[in-house]
Write a structure and sequence with these properties.
With 252 residues, the chain is of the alpha/beta class. The chain has one domain: NAD(P)-binding Rossmann-like Domain (Rossmann fold, 3-Layer(aba) Sandwich). Helix content is 41%, strand content 15%. The protein has seven helices and seven strands; from the N terminus they run βαβαβαβαβαβααβ. It has a seven-stranded parallel sheet with strand order 3-2-1-4-5-6-7, sandwiched between helices. Strand 5, helix 5 and strand 6 form a beta-alpha-beta unit. Helix 1 packs across helix 7. The longest helix is centred in the middle third of the chain and has 26 residues. The radius of gyration is 17 Å and the shape is globular. The mean pLDDT is 95. Bound molecules: nicotinamide-adenine-dinucleotide.
Length: 252
Amino acid sequence: MKFEGKSVIVTGASSGMGYEIALEFAKEGAVVIAVARRAERLEELAKSAEGFAGKILPYAGDISSQAVNEGMIEFALKECGKLDILVNNAGVLDEFKPIGEVTNELWDKVMAVNITGPMYAIRKAIQVMETQEDGGNIVNIASIGGICGCRAGAAYTTSKHALVGLTKNTAYMYAKKKIRCNVICPGGVETEVMNGQQMSQMGIERVMSGLDSTLPQGKPKDIASTVLFLASENAAFMNGAVIVIDGGVSCN
Ligand SMILES: NC(=O)c1ccc[n+]([C@@H]2O[C@H](COP(=O)([O-])OP(=O)(O)OC[C@H]3O[C@@H](n4cnc5c(N)ncnc54)[C@H](O)[C@@H]3O)[C@@H](O)[C@H]2O)c1
């Protein structure tokens, strides 16, 4: 029970990695606030955790909203009296569009979910964690698109690079306050994120060029295990780390 009594928020918990991350924390005894738009999916998730050492409490809302980000943290404080761990996992793709094809609407949507939402959450979480004796722990989920130039379209690549930058800045600024902030950069993982993506022809060809498309994809569990490690005392000296988990694809 590594996380017994810990108060954890996981955004984007209705599917994919977020779903798995929430379950793994609950197995380890945490009280998990699971955030996403689809309330019924969150209810299902909470049911799946029945009988676990910890529990999952749904909190439905759109993560691009400041009110939802601040509301989920207030909810954690009301339920647990503290916030130990924040996992900013929610994210959306961008149709793999190069900048010449990006509309204002697409840009604004991707930025709102992938970087402005996490900024609202991190800002509020820091204000809470600074006052806690044990500080706190933040894990962000970016992408190899956050460190490589062409693993998605222009908007997604920009938003995930920004999340890597915000992670490093936060890590250093609050290093003396017992607050750690790290970021995971996954490669291809089998989740719903690609569903319904209309690929820009020019974008997808460039993203895939030189890559072996037959290399195996990861599973949500591969990412969840690293999130729990980073949030644990085993990673006490890890702060501002950028962890690539992609089966080696970005070594090419
Ligand atoms: N799957 C991959 O190959 C891959 C690779 C690199 C990075 N990522 C990143 O990993 C994270 C998790 O993605 P996933 O692969 O599990 O995808 P997913 O689509 O299965 O999950 C994304 C989650 O974010 C939630 N979400 C999206 N927009 C939201 C909004 N406006 N408000 C609230 N919740 C919202 C979705 O409901 C879902 O719960 C994302 O940040 C994604 O960019 C995924």
